[in-house]
Amino acid sequence: GQITDIQIQPGITGIGQATFSYLPNIRTVVIPEGVTYIGPCAFMLSGSRTFYLPKSLQQLAYLALEPTTGDKIDIIYSGSEEEWNNIFMEDPDTLYATINSLVFCE
C-alpha cells in the first residue's frame, strides 16, 4: 500500500532536511509536542494537504512545507497566533503564499 498519513512519534525533536519529500500520496501530517525544528524541504512536494503542528515548534526552515505546484495547505497549530508569529521562518512569504487555512488552537 501507499503511505497516506504520517504521524511522527513522541520523543522526536526535529525533522531533517528532505525527510518526507516527494511522497505524492501523503495527505495528513501530525507532528507531536516536543518537535522544535522542521528542516529545509522536509515535506516538499509530498502531496501533504493538512499539517498538525505543535506549540513547541520554534523553527520552520526554507520550503519545509512546500506543496506540489498549485496546491495549498491547511495548518492546524496547537498554539496561539502570537506564538505562531514568533516561530522563526526562513521563507515566510513563500509559506504564506501556499496556505489555504491556518487555525490556532489557543
Order of helices and strands: EEEEEEEHEHE
Termini Cα gap: 36 Å
Helix content: 10-25%
User: Any idea what the shape is?
Assistant: globular
Strand order of the largest sheet: 1-3-5-7-9
Derived from helix and strand composition plus strand pairing, the structural class reads: alpha/beta
User: β content, as a range?
Assistant: 25-35%
Number of continuous helical runs? 2
The mean pLDDT is 93
Stretches where pLDDT falls below 50 for ≥5 residues?
none
- Biggest sheet record: 5 strands, parallel
The radius of gyration is 12 Å
The tally of beta strands, per DSSP, is 9
Structure, explained:
The protein has 106 residues and is of the alpha/beta class. The chain has helices at 81-85, 92-98, and strands spanning 5-7, 14-15, 28-30, 37-38, 50-53, 59-60, 73-77, 88-89, 99-104. The strands form 2 sheets. A 5-stranded parallel sheet has the order 1-3-5-7-9. Strands 2-4-6-8 form a 4-stranded parallel sheet, with no helix packed on it. The mean pLDDT is 93.
Quickly list its features.
single chain, about 110 residues, alpha/beta, five-stranded parallel sheet, four-stranded parallel sheet, about 10% helix
Question: How does the SSE layout of this entry go?
Answer:
Layout (H helix, E strand, L loop, with lengths): L4 E3 L6 E2 L12 E3 L6 E2 L11 E4 L5 E2 L12 E5 L3 H5 L2 E2 L2 H7 E6 L2
Parallel strand pairs: 1-3, 2-4, 3-5, 4-6, 5-7, 6-8, 7-9
